[in-house]
Amino acid sequence: MGKIADIVNRNLETIQDLRCLSVLMVSISSLISQRFQEQLVNKAEQLFDTIDSSQVNIARRIVQFLRNIKYSYYPLLERCNKVFLSNVNHLDLDSISKILSLYHSLQFHSFEFLLMTKKRLTELIPLFDHPASFVKLFVTLGPLAGPEEEKQLKSTMLLMSEELTSQQALAVMGAMEEMESRNSRLIKKIASILYKHLDNYKPVELLRITQALIFLHFQSKELFVKLRELLLSYLKVSVIPSEISLLVCALSMLPSPHLDEARISQIEAVLPQCDLNDLNSFATSVLRCIQFDPMYRNNTPGKQLKLLQKLDHYGRQRLQKCSSLNLLWEEVKSLKGDWFADSLLEETVVTLQRLMDEINYINVAGIASFISRTNYLSTSLLDRIASVVLQQNEKIHPFAILAIILPFSALNYDPPQRDEFFGTCLQHLNSYLSILDPLKLVFLGYSLATREYFSEDLLKAIFNIRFLAKLDSQLELLCSSLNMKVQFRLMELNRAVCLECPEYQIPWFHDRFCQQQYKKDFGRMNGAQQQIYKMLAEVLGGINFVKASVLTPYYYTIDFECILDKRKKPIPYGSHNTTSGKLPKIHSELNTQIAGSRLPPGAEKIALEFLDSRAFCRNIPHLKGKSAMKKRHLEILGYHVIQIPHFEWNSMALSTKNARMDYLRERIFGEGKSSS
């Protein structure tokens, strides 16, 4: 195969048949250098226009090649996607299943393809009555299905369940996890088949079974006991670090997890061979055992603590020795969890800063996503990202722009050339506004709004009936948590535009949505807020001078509200000092939305907000974008906003009640003692 790869390399310029080339690309993909990979990608792009739009197999092999080399090259993916879209009515279940699997691996999202394949697969439901083909349909259509299709799939699967093989049962359980299924009857049935075949599964399959059963809240002492026995038997003979880490991970998920000294010694023995993913998996598993093992409820044993220290040591050592950004990125791109954040995040950022000259148009979106996910503000990394965008913007695909903008939005940071940076990003996107996935467009609009950047073209693309209907269609394909997140982001963008850009005359249309959401969990206070509430009542002169859990126009929630007259004396509210549960009505005229419009002359409404750690960047007390935008909007609504950061309220300087009372007086009245 190496000789074949060499022949392809020497003859690449003369090859003109993309069908032959695509077969060779897939075959040699695991043997070739990064430079040769890029040459093949460029050659495939050059030859793509020589094939007609019916060549589905060629397009599929090109996507498979990109998956094999782990390269989400958007220009080629987009062209392949167009071939799939134009042939979707001729695609069979196998082809659709393979394409969706490849897209998932490459994290490439095509709303249009999902919508069309959902329609195509729904039409195929009555045609499959054999377990093998129906399982494939269940696994492919299940995560996309609406309530009716899902009900039909599950009822048919129940009828066929007795005929399922071990691998089919495993595939169905994985699909049910992805569907967030709560069909206890089907879960129980599939679990019984898994139990029957448990001895035949490989370690990685046992991990998948454990994850799915725990996620679906399935309880069976008998099944879990057998799972533990099998996992331990595999673990005792395993010598491969990645296999040991996944076995330990599965064991730690089971009820009452426990790692004995022999297993801890086994983990320690392989640590020098582990990459960051394995180290992170071990640490997460050990922390889970410490938290849930009844033996460690009152004290953490020294063996576990020493193991965590060794994991820290090997993690830092691996980062310090790293000399290639691409190799580092392969290891850190999927890292998450408390151990990584607490022990290695700072060292990872230092390593990224050391290698940041290697950030380019290929990896810039990935690095930006990592910064967003970790909430770690590194101005030098963000400035480098902005610089790469300005210098290499022609090579950056528009699909990558959202990921690039996100850390600047989330972490409330403007690069030195702010307007040029955001302007370049948007200019790059303009021709793609009509074909970008609706949810990405909503997230993009919201991200720019947090930075006070409003593009009229982008807002017109979002706030129109046709787009919103398209978005509704996509919401049906999403899991419930992502569905709700998209709806919240659209509401927040709608609110930002109404408050900051009234000249665009975009109406507020989220009254009903907000009322439904805020009725669920409105008015609850945590311990610190209850403490502040009692002290505010003392500072202001009584409980009737402060309102708690206030809902403003446009449905912002405020921890506390009070009113001061022009001489800075508190004005009482009467008997209604807490929320009555009645939701405010948003009126169409702007003056009715200003908080001070119905107050005595010279009086002002004050909004007091307690900010916990989620409002700030992880590494420094810098306010994040969402909290900064809320402050801005409350000020537009007529409030004087006082934000109380958790690190000030819980500091040694405010360790006594008197100190805290003086702090509140200073923040409200601008003096150390009460003005009354």
Word description of this protein:
This protein has 676 residues and is mainly alpha-helical. Among the domains are: 1-127; 433-511, no CATH class; 521-574 and 598-669. Helices cover 60% and strands 4% of the residues. The chain has 32 helices and five strands. It has helices at residues 2-11, 18-28, 34-47, 56-68, 74-86, 93-106, 111-124, 131-141, 147-160, 166-178, 184-196, 203-215, 221-237, 241-253, 261-270, 276-292, 302-321, 325-332, 338-354, 364-374, 379-392, 401-410, 418-429, 438-450, 456-462, 465-475, 480-500, 511-521, 527-540, 625-636, 646-649, 657-669; strands at 547-551, 557-564, 570-571, 604-611, 639-645. Strands 1, 2, 3, 4 and 5 form a five-stranded mixed beta sheet that branches. Helix 6 runs parallel beside helix 8, helix 15 packs parallel to helix 17 and helix 20 packs parallel to helix 22. The chain is globular, with a radius of gyration of 29 Å.
The stretches of 5 or more residues where confidence is low (pLDDT under 50) are: 575-596, 672-676
Strand content: under 5%
- What's the helical proportion of residues? 55-70%
* Beta strand count: 5
**Structural class designation:** mainly alpha
The gyration radius over C-alpha positions equals 29 Å
Main pleated-sheet profile = 5 strands, mixed
User: How many angstroms does the end-to-end distance come to?
Assistant: 87 Å
Q: Which whole number gives the mean pLDDT?
A: 90
| Structural shape | globular
Number of helices: 32
